[in-house]
Structure formats: C-alpha cells, structure tokens
Design goal:
homodimer, 399 residues, 9-stranded mixed beta sheet, 17 strands
C-alpha cells in the first residue's frame, strides 16, 4: 500500500472546500470557469509542482499533474454544480493529489488530474469527452451555458497558462474515487462500492409551441396552451414506460420554462428537459422511441407544434475487470465484508477516459444519498477508508 | 356627437406605437416605468397641455389631462406587457386624447388619463387600484417585480415631475375603450361590444418543496420530486373543476420554475402561478376551496411540503346602466345591428375606478382574438367606429 497520510489528505480536502464555500453548511459554489474554480485549479497546479510533477493546463481548462514515464492516472473534477457539495469531484481530485504525493515518496509514478466542466455548465463531462475523443474541441467551443456564454469564451479565461493535451499513451489506466451520490451504501452501512459499469444517458430539450394569448379572455376550449403539452407528455410517458423500465431505470424533468412566463398570459411556448438513464443500451433506445412517439402524439392531439434539441447520447461503459479486482483486494483488506460491487447511476469522467485505457471507480457512502446539494456529506472515516483502498490498488497497479 | 378627427386620432395612435416599437410586426415593448413608458407619458403630457388641459403626474406615475370644473373622464393605460401589442391600453388612451381635444373644441369638458402599471409589472392595475382606494400607496410600495425591484424604487424615476392625486369628485364618470382581447366580436363580424361587467380574478403562487437530489443515482421510488407535485395538482384540479365551472370560467398556469433548474438534478422545489376568473363571486370562492384542498391532497399524497403566496382577489364589477345605455345609442347609430352586450374576461382599470363613480367600457374587435402578443391587431375602420361611438356617448354624458 502506498504510504498515504490521512491527516494531510483531509487538510487538503478542507482547503479545497474553502475555495467557493457557499456559507451554507459544507456547501460549495464553484462552477466551471467561475473565479473560485480557476483559483482552485491554480492551487492544485501549485500542489502538483510541489510534489515534483509537471503541472499542466490543457486547452479545455483541465489541470494535470504529470509523473515522468508511464504512470497510473488518478483523479476526478474540481468544478461543482451551481449549488454543490464539498465532495462531488473534489474527493477524487484530492485522493489523486495524496496518492501522487505518496507515489512520489515511494518511487511509484502516479499522475493526477482535475477535469473541467464535469458538472455540465456547457455539456456534461465536457473536457474529459474532448480528451477522450468523444467530442471535438471545435464542436465543444459552440456549446453555450444558460446565459449564452460559449465554451470557447469561457476557456479563454485560462489562455495565458494553457499547454497541450497530454498523450493518453503515457498512462497505464485511470482510477476515479467518488461519492456514491445514491442511498445504497449508506443504508447498508457499507464503506465502499466497486463500480461494475457506468449507466448510459440520453438527454434532450423538448419544446411545444401553441398560441400565446390573454388568460382572461381566451375561452378554455379555444386555447392552444403550450403548458398542456408538458402535462399530457408526462402523463403519456409515465404510462408507456411502465412495462419497459427496470427498478434501476430513472427519468427526470429538471428544467421547465414557459414563455412569456406571466400569470396573465396563456403560454405560447413550453420548453423542458427530458433525461433518462439505464445500463442497457437497447432499453435506452426503446425509451427514446417512446419519448419521440409521445411528443408526436401530444402535438397532434392538442394541436401544438413540437421540436426537440439534438439528443445527448452517452452509452453505458463497463469498468476494467483487472482494475476492479485490485480494488476488491484493497477493499477486503480495509473494510472486510463491508463493500459491494454496484453500477454507477451517475455519469463520471471515467466514462470518457475509457475510450483510451482501462478505467475503474471506487465509491464511498453518501449520507442519506444526498448530493448535488449543500447537504452532501460523508463521514471522514469513510473518506479515509476509500483513500486506503485506493492506496492498495495504486501500489499494485502503479509499479 | 363630439367633432372627433379620425385621421388625427390614427396618427396619434401610430406615434404612440413608435415609442417602444419592438421591431416585430406592430409589437410594442413598453412595460411600466421602462424608458419607453416614461417617454410615452411625457409625450402624452405635452399633448394634454397643447389642448389646454392641466397635465399632471400623480405619485404612482399615472398621467392626467384635467379639464376645468366637473368633467367626464376617458382613458386607459399606456404601459404594455413585456411583449405587448400596439392597442392594449394605448387605444383607450388615444381615444381619451382625441375626445378631450374634440371636447375642448366643442366646449364639453372632457378629462383624460393614462393609468400606470395596468399590466402588472408589480401587481395588476396597480396605479388605478391605489387611486380607487383598493390598495394603499404604502402597501403598493412594497410590491416587487420579477427582478426584485420595488414599486417605490420604480416610481421614484418620475419624482421630479410628480404632483398630487386628482380628487375623484371632479369627475362625472369614466369610460374606457379597449380591444376585446377575445375572439367573440371578430368571429361574429361585429364592430363593438358594450361591457356589462368585469369578471373577478383570483391569483396566487403555489410552491411544492421536496428533496433536491442527483437525477442519476436516486431511484424513482425514493424521490421527492417537487415537479411531480405540479403534475398531480393539475390533474386534480382539472378533475375537480369539471362540475363547478361554466363555459366562461378560465384558469391558467402561466409561470413555472423548478429549482435549481438543472437537467441532472431532481428538483427540490417547484413554484407556479395559478389564476382563475369568473363573473360570479360565489364560484370564485368554490374554486378557491378546490385549489386549497388539492394543494393539501398533493402534499400529503406525495410527501411534499406546500405553501402559497397571499392570494390576489379582485371581485366582479358591474358597469353603470345609464352609461351602458348611452354607449348603446352610439353603437346603434354607428354600427346598427353589429354590436352586442358582453362581459369582460379581462381586468381593466375601470374596475378600480368604479369605487368612485359610474364606469362603462366599450370593446372593439381583436383580430383572431389575439392580444398580449406582437400579433395583436384591429382593423382601422373598427378603431374609428369605436371612437365615433364614444363621441356620441361623450357628447350625451359630458355636457
């Protein structure tokens, strides 16, 4: 096991939390390319240099700590949701920092990374997808956030420090430690989850267009109320998904906008998000068919027009068997009988990195399953157990 | 009939349209206290002075053209919706200007007015409600727009020109000309509607609060998705209103906000508007009982918390019989057999003014019933017919 230092690790984790601390509990507000995000990345680069690694920003704003020669890569992302917790991404980044430091002390070459915009200000896992070759930098540059700012504009904030992308062939593989973000480990009183695979995601925006009109003088039977399209669509998919999904399948509408958004105007346009996730690519496809059929049915039934954005499609990604086995040996050493294999319902940068090399992921428990919220937390004992499991696997895989 | 000049009237109407013209069709963007709104009000004050009226801004930003002695008051409002048409309010204001001018030429004392914030940047018919004594200026000063700006801050933009409120006893009564904003006159090929009464309105914001969580890792059966509250609420009221409402009853949700509004987060909070209108005060009350019962049922059924804003309550207002009769004689002279009596489904400043004096309203057709939208329009022949009907009634009632 690499000689990790739990106190140093926890001190670094709390320091990173202080950059963008929200003032509410342990909450953090550090979205991609915000001032706190850039401050955090420059602080990470300083830490990497102190270890003797080459600190490098790539063109997407990802910050790397690169060991010489062929090395094992360990890391995650340090950007957060608009209202995020202190561990999502940050935990994996500080695990990477501590393991790279322990590796340097033990003569085991460990590189580390904090990817940019995992949380999707512009896309989702934006920077790792570019590095993984799943999106081109040119295409990504056109992506906009909710304020209309492009990825190209945002990444230009770091142009003074940017270098090249590292060559993927310099890495033996990638391990990402992350909070589970779900309830299973916490409910079972277990310390760790070894991820078997990452579910696939489909995500789109749907727009129904009707007729904007006065809410007092337009009789109910003459309205073409775009909001009715949303209600009917949700009713149809709830019905049609019933015999198609499994207990692990999830679908979510997290954003709705009515136009023009006045109490006294029948909305002429309704735009909303539709996202679904499942570990089975075939099921994702069948759900897409239901979604598209339901959109068409709503439009013809209610006399609305319908349109959809391009669909984001991320396929399910299996984790490397050998890496999983190494993590399992570490887990059995540090938390015997208190870990499980499990799928990841959340997308992670590891899914992008899998295009280049073997990848694996380790989960630690999320208290009450809460994440993407100020209340997100994990017991510090569990954080340290996760670090030690990684230290076992990194010793074995990194030499 | 007062000696109105249709060409002068139409020229003034087009000039007012040019102040805040949206660049799309005949659309206008001139919300209360915006730069175009203030420019328009100062231009109106200049026109009033040119006629020989006393031009006065009251403390709410309403601009008055005051004839000497006891006079008939004719007007409406010149502010628009965030995306408005060229006639809503503006038509009644320019009718008032032309009739005051014709009255001055004929020796009939006609005063005129453009009320402020009829469209509800802060409340709804904000300024006329203050003048009508339905709201105090102190209470109104606390109202905020969607950006958090208070009415007190907004009206301070006109503090350099503000005078006192005019005494309501100086007016014999009030007539407001307005586009119908509904489909009935246009569909029937009729030129005018004489309003029998204005429907009452109830309006509130409803919030369901659940648990914000990750959209990939939170199983469907463990979610407390606030958006589900909105869906279930809409289902319940659609069912429960069915045997309560009449064909004229309307209800609308024109604004929805999910928090935090991300594709990848199960929304922890959903806030939406709920407005309903009817001519019968008892039915409005019964609908309120259904609304409140349904909110409670949704909350307990789905394990959400629920809260509501204060409810805005505007009661139905009948129009004066004698004024209606005078308008009917004018309509029969100018458009024989081509007019009707009808209720107003929209709220108007006349409803506030009714607290002080006899009021009446005249409607002209809205093409395809469209209003509160850039497409709002009326044939110019119909606008002139409306002006002439008013000129008959104003001659009769104003002397």
């Amino acid at each position: 096991m690499l000689p990790v230092n739990p106190d140093r690790f926890l001190a670094d984790l709390h320091h990173l939390r202080s950059i963008g601390a929200s003032g509410v509990g342990k909450g953090v507000v550090r979205p991609a390319f915000s001032d706190p995000d850039i401050t955090a990345r420059k602080w990470l680069a300083d830490q990497y240099r102190d270890i003797g690694l080459e600190a490098r920003f790539d063109p997407t704003g990802t910050v790397w700590g690169l060991a010489e020669g062929k090395s094992l890569l360990i890391g995650s992302h340090s950007d957060t949701q608009p209202e995020g917790g202190w561990l999502d991404g940050a935990l994996g980044v500080i695990c990477g920092l501590e393991l790279a430091r322990a590796g340097a002390e033990a003569g085991v070459p460990i590189s580390t990374v904090s990817f940019q915009d995992e949380e999707g200000r512009f896309g989702v896992t934006t920077s790792s997808r570019i590095w993984g070759g799943l999106t081109s930098l040119e295409d990504a540059d056109q992506l906009t956030d909710t304020q209309g700012i492009t990825f190209a504009d945002a990444r230009s904030r770091l142009s003074d420090v940017m270098g090249d992308f590292p060559d993927p062939s310099r890495f033996k593989g990638f391990i990402e430690c992350h909070i589970e973000q779900g309830p299973w480990l916490d409910k079972a009183g277990e310390a760790a989850g070894i991820v078997s695979g990452i579910v696939g995601i489909r995500d789109m925006r749907i727009t129904f267009t009707g007729e904007q009109n006065h809410a007092g003088t337009t009789p109910m039977h003459m309205r073409k109320d775009a909001f009715r399209g949303l209600l009917r669509y949700q009713e149809l998919i709830a019905d049609r998904f019933r015999n198609l999904v499994v207990p692990e399948t999830v679908w979510t509408t997290g954003h709705v906008e009515l136009h023009p958004g006045s109490h006294s105007i029948v909305p002429g346009r309704c735009t909303f998000s539709m996202q679904w996730r499942d570990g089975d690519k075939q099921r994702l496809k069948q759900m897409e068919e239901v979604v598209r059929l339901s959109i068409d049915d709503v439009a013809s039934e209610l006399g609305l027009k319908a349109s959809t954005s391009d669909m984001l499609g991320i396929d399910p990604v299996p984790m490397d068997d050998g890496f999983q086995a190494a993590l399992a040996r570490g887990a059995e050493a540090e938390a015997p009988g208190k870990w499980r294999k499990m799928p990841s319902g959340a997308l992670h940068d590891a899914a992008s990195v899998a295009a280049h090399m073997p990848v694996a992921m380790l989960f630690v428990p999320s208290i009450n399953g809460i994440s993407h919220a100020f209340e997100e937390d994990t017991a510090e004992d569990d954080l340290v157990t996760g670090l030690k499991i990684l230290a076992h696997a990194a010793e074995e895989l990194g030499r």
